[in-house]
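[Meeting: bench + compute handoff]

Bench side (C.D.) handed over the final construct sequence. Compute side (W.E.) agreed to return the predicted structure before the next meeting so the bench team could plan truncations. Sequence as handed over:
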Amino acid sequence: MKSAAGFTLLEILVALTVTAIVLTATYGVFTSLSTAKDELERDGEIYHQARVLFDRMGREIRSTYFRPAVSETLFQGGEGEIRDQDFLELTTAITSPTLPRATGISRVRYEVRLNPDDREGPPILVRREESLLPGGSAEGMEHRLAAGVSRFGVRFFDGVEWRDAWNTTEGGGLPQMVELLLEMDAGDRSLKFLTAVEIPRIEP
């Protein structure tokens, strides 16, 4: 009568090794999928944020209100106070409904600043708005729009070439188009967004 055959030590070690390799590979796949999922969700939030910002700025730029004879109206932009960060300031017919004593015309300024709560942290994009009222400006309001803005750039097309700065107080009226650039931190890399907005011509 033959005795029941068992597994040798070598066979058990081989089986354990194969099992360990399979489990390690499976864990690696799940880890990669989880990391990719988190990255896609983070990127999706940043894409949505950039889309909302461009939509808001675009509507305000297309509704620019500038009259050379009215000193309170303006359109200007270029290099800001922080290196490699631009600013954009304009008077527009788009007014936030939550603005105190809001009227049909407001002055809006976009710029990047250091976070006052974390000077070593990533800079933030700030929007300031104030109403234009007869006899002076009303109380304005300021909002932090986005953190982690590594670059906010603005360029202006005069009909012939792109310019890095614009100021209606220097004459020349409004530019034909405005290019907006946003670079936002996404972990160990940055996402770049670029758009151009045309300013409608207003017949005198």
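W.E. noted at the follow-up: The radius of gyration is 28 Å. C.D. will use this when planning the next construct.
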